[in-house]
Amino acid sequence: MVKLTMIARVTDGLPLAEGLDNVHDQQDEIYKQQAKALFKNLSKGQNEPSRMSIETGPYLFHYIIEGRVCYLTLCDRSYPKKLAFQYLEDLKNEFERVNGSQIETAARPYAFIKFDTFIQKTKKLYLDTRTQRNLSKLNDELYEVHQIMTRNVQEVLGVGEKLDQVSQMSSRLTSESRLYAEKARDLNRQALIRKWAPVAIVIAVVVLLFWVKRKIW
Fold it and tell me: What pTM did the predictor assign?
């Protein structure tokens, strides 16, 4: 299954969007920090492939780079590689369509926080690998992933770099993730208000008119 999704600008490693999960633990934060380290590594201008899978513990990072943007996901090792990359392709197509003109001018982390809604919706489509939709994608011979390279996370981040060095900033990342989650909750709250406020107003008017009518009669 898809465990983590992040989108970042390659030129400077700036995180642009993230798929918010309901459950957060210390292990999740370590993998998020690894993802940020990968983005930082890509921003150094090293000639990395535009598509790659990276082994890390019981999971695999998969990423694609296009238009100076990196789309990355963390999946179980058992999750089909072809589905993981097609999931990233769907995100890429929509992100470019909606935010393409603003990517270069984004100045703060997670400037496109609202894209989480599309990430969550798309992730649900890829959750069950046995659906007819996903089986068709797996059997699509026009989309091949056999040539995509697989490397180890320590090899990509640098020979001799230990994972405990990567996790040293996990406390800072925890605070950042909480702030991101609070912003997402605020956006959801505002959306609910916009959705139901007109209904509440109509009901209040109807009740008021009914009350006035009873007073008159």
Answer: 0.71
